[in-house]
């Protein structure tokens, strides 16, 4: 086993920091490497979670069991299902109060690498160091400015009802490698999927003004649920976070409802640079809502036409 320890001082109450770490469903917003997170089970102070995240810029997924000690301000974790080259991984978040509005967060890891090969040990060590430092910096920023983060965050969704099969609609969204042929606003798309259901997608899209934006996302595809969660790794200049979720839900009267949900965090110091002098965060939220909503609705309407044409056939 190899052991590491990373720590950071945070100017926020220890209990508030603990709360941020305890709610794993918010990690995709708080922590850069985390793409998607789910709580699978909860029994008292013990839970099983599944995380999808980047490690050394590669998408990975694993299942962990966590023991939460709110009074002791500590969360212990151990991976139940690891992904190569990790053989095993345990650790803990340990929050040490320093005063009413300060604490030190210590992140501990103990791991082994597949076959203890030097290259595997080096890979895991590098990933643990990079992600730990990133997560601790993110945690400090969020904890010290939680009110501002909430002010800068907006969530919105668009839905389209489709008289077609959920599997056909899902296939349209899943096969994003075909979007340049299917979606007029997509000029280029490179897609890799080394782990089934875990995709890396780089895309050039054209806006209504004719400008071309390049984005890169990691996508988690749930074919049994007809859902796709994603997180942008390369972001437009106006955003610090953009997470999305496509869902396709059968309707009681027949057909399905396809929904595109977005969670974005505005980059405050980019608002006037991008939108012009005097523009506010609320203006930026409206701008992003319109831009992302327009593209999402266009994609959903094309998926609708695709699925309904095949239903008629």
UniProtKB/TrEMBL annotation:
InterPro entries per the UniProt record, alphabetical: COQ10_START (IPR005031), Polyketide_cyclase/dehydratase (IPR019587), START-like_dom_sf (IPR023393)
Residue span, Coenzyme Q-binding protein COQ10 START domain: 165-264
SUPFAM superfamilies xref list: Bet v1-like
Designated name of the protein: SRPBCC family protein
Organism: Amycolatopsis dendrobii
């Amino acid at each position: 086993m190899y052991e590491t320890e990373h720590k950071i001082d945070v100017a926020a109450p220890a209990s508030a920091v603990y709360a941020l770490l305890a709610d794993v469903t918010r990690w995709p917003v708080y922590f850069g490497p985390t793409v998607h997170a789910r709580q699978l089970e909860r029994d008292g102070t013990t839970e099983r979670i599944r995380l999808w995240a980047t490690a050394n810029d590669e998408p990975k997924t694993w299942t962990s069991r966590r023991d939460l000690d709110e009074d002791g301000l500590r969360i212990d974790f151990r991976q139940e299902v690891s992904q190569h080259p990790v053989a095993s991984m345990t650790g803990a978040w340990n929050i040490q109060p320093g005063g009413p509005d300060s604490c030190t967060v210590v992140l501990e890891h103990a791991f082994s690498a597949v076959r203890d090969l030097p290259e595997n040990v080096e890979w895991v060590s590098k990933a643990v160091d990079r992600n730990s430092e990133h997560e601790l910096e993110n945690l400090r920023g969020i904890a010290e400015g939680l009110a501002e983060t909430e002010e800068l965050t907006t969530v919105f969704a668009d839905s389209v009802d489709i008289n077609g099969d959920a599997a056909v609609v899902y296939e349209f969204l899943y096969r994003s490698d075909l979007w340049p042929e299917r979606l007029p606003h997509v000029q280029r798309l490179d897609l890799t999927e080394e782990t089934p259901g875990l995709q890396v997608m780089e895309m050039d899209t054209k806006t209504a003004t004719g400008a071309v934006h390049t984005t890169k996302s990691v996508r988690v595809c749930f074919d049994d649920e007809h859902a796709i969660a994603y997180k942008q790794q390369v972001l437009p200049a106006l955003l610090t976070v953009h997470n999305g979720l496509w869902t396709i839900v059968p309707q009681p009267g027949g057909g399905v409802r396809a929904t595109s949900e977005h969670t974005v965090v505005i980059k405050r110091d980019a608002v006037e640079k991008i939108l012009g002098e005097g523009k506010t965060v609320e203006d930026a939220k409206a701008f992003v809502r319109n831009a992302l909503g327009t593209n999402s609705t266009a994609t959903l309407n094309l998926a609708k036409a695709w699925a309904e044409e095949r239903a008629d056939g």
